[in-house]
Specification:
The chain is an all-beta fold. About 0% of the residues lie in helices and about 45% in strands. It is built from no helices and 24 strands. The strands form six sheets. It has a four-stranded antiparallel beta sheet with strand order 1-24-23-22, with no helix packed on it. It has a four-stranded antiparallel beta sheet with strand order 2-3-4-5, with no helix packed on it. Strand 6 and strand 7 form a beta hairpin. Pfam families: Tectonin. InterPro entries: Beta-propeller_rpt_TECPR, Tectonin_beta-prop.
């Protein structure tokens, strides 16, 4: 695949905030951070997580198999790199320190308040996966694979706008870097055009189980076998 370069390792979930902030977890819940060096690409970080969200500013959050929530503080306290945060989530994503979203096992949607003592505000709607960008952009998909973009900062009466398409996974780096995976594993990139009668998605070669998009245009994906790929389709072939 000319559009993707394979990176050594095996992961079951991946998140990218930027070219230099890429995290993943494997099938055994081990946590890995990208070293920015493909010859020896991953460093194991203590802990156990089932999903992870990495932001361009270095912010990283995760949830474990028991739906417990953690924020990474290993750059501040190496003895205990994860701080437990009250709540229960099955999926989480971070666009920045102040743009953190998650969904729980009942598909309820939560946004981080930036205040650990009362950390979550419930947002109307129901989603199974969510993606948050550095610029405040948020997208989600529901159990029926319908696609939604958050507009609650513009229209509080209807915080989600349905966008044509069918996706089971979504990743948001910014308003203009949105990627998804459909139920068959096909990869799609948002065209930045919702216009009626126009398909807002362009299909990108490859097959994925999870996808990650950074604020700077960085994109990674993993396939059903846990193989890891970084997007190079925006560079000379």
């Amino acid at each position: 695949m000319a559009d993707w370069v394979k990176v050594a390792g095996s992961l079951s979930a991946i998140s990218a905030g930027s070219r230099t902030t890429v995290w993943g977890v494997n099938a055994a819940s081990a946590i890995y951070r990208y070293t920015n060096y493909d010859a020896n690409p991953w460093i194991n970080i203590p802990g156990a997580l089932s999903d992870i969200g990495a932001a361009s500013d270095g912010t990283t959050w995760g949830v474990n198999a028991g739906n417990q929530i953690y924020r990474y503080i290993g750059d501040q306290d190496s003895s205990n790199p994860w701080k437990g945060i009250t709540g229960s989530l099955v999926r989480i994503d971070a666009g920045s320190r102040t743009n953190v979203w998650g969904v729980d096992s009942a598909s309820a949607i939560y946004r981080y308040t930036n205040y650990d003592a009362n950390p979550w505000i419930k947002i109307p709607g129901a989603l199974s996966d969510i993606g948050a960008g550095a610029d405040g952009t948020v997208w989600g998909v529901n159990a029926g694979n319908q696609v939604f973009r958050y507009t609650g900062d513009q229209n509080s009466s209807n915080p989600w706008v349905n966008v044509p398409g069918s996706l089971k996974r979504i990743a948001v780096g910014s308003r203009t870097n949105v990627w998804g995976v459909d139920p068959a594993g096909s990869i799609y990139r948002y065209t930045n055009n919702d216009a009626s009668g126009v398909n807002p998605w362009i299909k990108i070669p490859g097959a994925a189980a999870d996808i990650a998009a950074g604020a700077d245009g960085t994109v990674w994906h993993i396939n059903t076998s846990g193989e890891i790929y970084r997007y190079t389709g925006d560079q000379p072939s």
